[in-house]
Specification:
Number of strands: 4
Helix content: 25-40%
Structural class: alpha+beta
Number of helices: 4
Enzyme class: lyase
GO molecular function, one term: dihydroneopterin aldolase activity
Pathway: Cofactor biosynthesis; tetrahydrofolate biosynthesis; 2-amino-4-hydroxy-6-hydroxymethyl-7,8-dihydropteridine diphosphate from 7,8-dihydroneopterin triphosphate: step 3/4
Oligomer: single chain
Catalytic activity: 7,8-dihydroneopterin = 6-hydroxymethyl-7,8-dihydropterin + glycolaldehyde
Distance between the termini: 20 Å
CATH architecture: 2-Layer Sandwich
Shape: elongated
Number of domains: 1
Pfam families: FolB
Strand order of the largest sheet: 1-2-3-4
Length: 122
């Protein structure tokens, strides 16, 4: 088992509970962590034996393009897509951050973290 992480991804997107947020947009950050078996990739040095980082990034980028009211919803969609696209992934953890959220005071970012493990197959 091993972990693949894409940390510090940044996007400009149109998420937010308030209509104004969905019109003007904001900067968001995403950190993605997946657990999967990395033994075959480690011994073979072949890209098709692992999870392609570029494909993972594209999955996140595509989900960031679709506006959502809640960060929780964005994170949930990312996890769904990763689990669907990569059936051998055992677990996913995603952190979605909104920079400078409109809270009426100083807050560098608001963040949600979601985790999911694949159900064991019988």
């Amino acid at each position: 088992m091993g972990q693949i992480a894409l940390e510090g991804m940044e996007f400009f997107a149109f998420h937010g509970f308030y209509d104004e947020e969905q019109k003007i947009g904001n900067k968001y950050g995403v950190d993605l962590y997946i657990e999967t078996d990395l033994h075959a990739a480690g011994t073979s040095d072949k890209l098709d034996a692992t999870v392609n980082y570029e494909v993972l990034y594209r999955v996140v980028a595509e989900e960031m393009l679709a506006p959502a009211r809640l960060l929780e919803h964005v994170g949930h969609r990312v996890m769904d897509r990763v689990m669907q696209k990569f059936p051998h992934v055992k677990s996913v953890k995603v952190c979605v951050s909104k920079f400078n959220p409109p809270l009426g005071g100083i807050c560098h970012r608001a963040r949600v973290t979601l985790k999911r493990k694949r159900a064991k197959q019988l």
